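ok so I'm stuck.
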Amino acid sequence: MSPLTRTTKAAVLGLLAPAALLATLTACGGPSADGGQDAAPEPRPTATAAAQVTFPAPRTAPPAAPTLTPAPTKGEVRVEQGPFTDRVRLTRLALASAAAEPRVTGHLAITSDVSDVLALELRAAYYDEHGRLLGTGSFQYQEEGEDAHGTERHDGPRAAGDGIDFTVPAKGLTGTPVAAVVSVPVLVNE
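replied:
not stuck anymore, here's the structure
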């Protein structure tokens, strides 16, 4: 037998074996043992019957940094970059630390959408002159729906467009702050 004949026979067998396997797997055959036709194949699962994909629950915002580097200047308010800072404009940021209750005030406008705000949270971390964390505070806001998690519904100015004024009061500080870092851990539009 010549090498060409052996190669040709091997190629034919290489093609026939997968075809036979495919015919067996897809139940392509003739009459069944009882003389009738094969039963209808079982329906294949559709895309809607695919396994449900679950995602982990949303994580809470990361805690405030224990130290601020470089050390802050007196009255400085920094904005921490996060997943929502590109969708908002924070202006007129100020730290009022001489008051009985230190706080960060400012103005927020949503720049990415004009729909109602379902949930918004601003957090401020307060630091001393050496950049050590003294404590935090938060501000919650929503424009639609019922009172949720202690958040009041706002019927006045809207965050989208002209924006809203906000105050983030400090809670339980361990000293007098000289600087703050504001973050936007929650922003949900309609």
